[in-house]
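Hey,

The postdoc asked me to send both predictions to you directly instead of through the lab channel. I've kept everything plain text so nothing gets mangled by the mail client. Protein one:
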Amino acid sequence: MPDADHGYKASTPVQTPGKGRGWTWLVSYVKRKFHERSAKKQEESTADRSARLTANATVVLAVFTVILAATSVGTVWILRNQLREMHSGGADTKALAEAAKAQAEEAKEQVGKMAESLTKTDNLIIQATAEAAATNRLALQAQRSADYARDAIKTSVEADRPWIVPDFPPHNKHTIQEANLEWHNGGNVPAVAVFSATEYFVPVFPHQLHTCTEMEIELKKKPISTWQYKGFVAQDERYEIALDNTPPWSGQAPIDIHGCVWYTDILSNTERTTEFFYTAIQNKFMFPESDGVSLFYLADRPFVYK
């Protein structure tokens, strides 16, 4: 309520003249110009509107052209700087290439020196190898001379002894009992007290066979009539081993035959031994099929002569 003196209370704030009027004036001005522009557009003719739009488009094109020009100038400036950097980098690359070339030439020189050194080493190795080979040849010649001397002594001794050796195994016999093993004395001295023993295995040899010594001990426990004994076998004379006491045999599996021949050297009175191995196969299980029985040597079990 206003007081008696002034009509207002003493606590009423005093308004500052012009406070907030600047902002209000600006907003009012913009609104007024906007309305004026809208009214002007509504009042303008078609020709004026086309002219206005053309002018605006021209201004936009001018601005766009200025921007393109500025962009082109900037691009030219950037490309120029890049070319300057590339040129500087090319110079650096050239320097690096020259340095690498110098290092390669130096390395090539070092490799040449190493190759020369290796060539010298190879020559030394070749020379040492040749000397070792010559020494080896001398050693081999000495060994060969010693072997010749030993063989000559052995041959001179063994030439004057009997050799009971096998002939070719019998083939195409009707039965295994008819397939006698034919041997002969291939030495230069007659053999006396010749006898033999055989044992048979179906289908294969056992892991461990009897030795000739064991077979001789067992044989001498039997009558001499079972020994297939022959008192005297002259040079080139034959000696036959009959395959008797063979086990029952269907023929589907082979019969392996193991045995020994004993004889005495008439000059040295030394008992000699030949251990032999055969296998018997029925021909109907061979190709081409036929009748009868054939015997063969075993490649993995050579004869043993003592």
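Protein two:
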Amino acid sequence: MTRPRGLDLPKATPRRGAVLLALHYCGRELARLRRLTVPAMVLSALGSIGLDHIVVGGAVHDGHLQYPLQ
């Protein structure tokens, strides 16, 4: 079997294989524990977004940042 021309793919290294294997096992565990992982991921994302809004909103309120429309 030959590769198409212009497609130079690097050969698989042991490190790459180990990373792919670890990602495979982690993905399988996430799928198996879906009832816990989905709320955990969603709530952590919402918490991060909320924290950013609090920090940026506080900085704007204190006068450290200016609104771009002013």
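Summary for protein two, as requested: Helices lie at 14-32, 34-62.

Thanks,
C.
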